[in-house]
TrEMBL record:
<dbReference type="InterPro" id="IPR026286">
    <property type="entry name" value="MaiA/AMDase"/>
</dbReference>
<protein>
    <submittedName>
        <fullName>Asp/Glu/hydantoin racemase</fullName>
    </submittedName>
</protein>
<dbReference type="Pfam" id="PF17645">
    <property type="entry name" value="Amdase"/>
</dbReference>
<dbReference type="InterPro" id="IPR053714">
    <property type="entry name" value="Iso_Racemase_Enz_sf"/>
</dbReference>
Length: 230
């Protein structure tokens, strides 16, 4: 897992998802990410160079797949993530995915068309994510965001708040809801909001990494609805 440096959620959350699955292990390498805006200094955090350097360190551990466990492709566009994956695989010969590529794969696998979105991000970042979802053929339904530039601060928002926001979006009608920030405490919401597929980005990243490694998501029941998706 290529991990944003200021993220304090995804490592313990991933460990919790894998707690009952000891034959699958997750390994982490950090790269510098401090804020989430559309300004050049922020978007430059997601250049391929630091990703490749982090991936090469993880490759020493003979991992079976690599995943950029950050959501930058959601606002920078899927081609940005595809370019990262291509550079990482070229350098390491290890298959690579990202949180955002895995989200789109999951939405397609679930047959979801109307997608709700919950994040802590600034309005401009949220608008870019919604535009990219529409560009990929989805209909954007309800959305909630918190106008937080993050990145460390995203973890300070309590799970109860995330659950409330997800419930509000679900009430507006959608096939699936993406909680798309890997430093946001969305796993509880994903487990407690009934009647709609709620996709937390930490779980989505793990699901995507398992698929990239040729693994079976059904062996990780903690993934919830994703454990039923090949």
């Amino acid at each position: 897992m290529l991990t944003p440096s200021s993220n304090t959620v995804l490592e313990p959350a991933t460990a919790a998802l894998l707690a009952a699955t000891p034959h699958i292990t997750a390994h982490f390498q950090r790269l510098r990410v401090l804020s989430i805006t559309l300004e050049g200094g922020s978007t430059g955090q997601f250049d391929a160079g630091p990703m490749v350097a982090a991936a090469e360190m993880l490759a020493d551990a003979k991992v079976h797949a690599l995943c950029w466990n950050g959501t930058s492709g959601a606002w920078l566009g899927l081609e940005a993530d595809r370019a990262i994956c291509a550079a990482v695989t070229r350098a390491t010969s290890i298959p690579c995915t990202t949180a955002t590529l895995a989200l789109h794969d999951a939405l397609h696998a679930l047959g979801a068309r109307r997608v709700g979105l919950v994040t802590p991000y600034l309005g401009a970042v949220q608008a870019a994510i919604l535009a990219n979802l529409r560009a990929e053929g989805f209909v954007t339904a309800g959305e909630r965001h918190l106008e937080d530039p993050g990145n460390y601060s995203f973890a300070d928002h309590p799970p109860a708040l995330v659950t409330r926001l997800v419930g509000e979006v679900a009430a507006e009608g959608c096939d699936a809801i993406a909680i798309h920030c890997t430093n946001f405490r969305g796993l509880e919401a994903a487990a407690t909001v009934p009647g709609v597929a709620v996709l937390d980005s930490v779980a989505v990243s793990l699901w995507g990494a398992l698929r990239a490694a040729g693994g079976n998501a059904a062996s990780v029941p903690a993934l919830g609805v994703l454990s039923q998706v090949a």
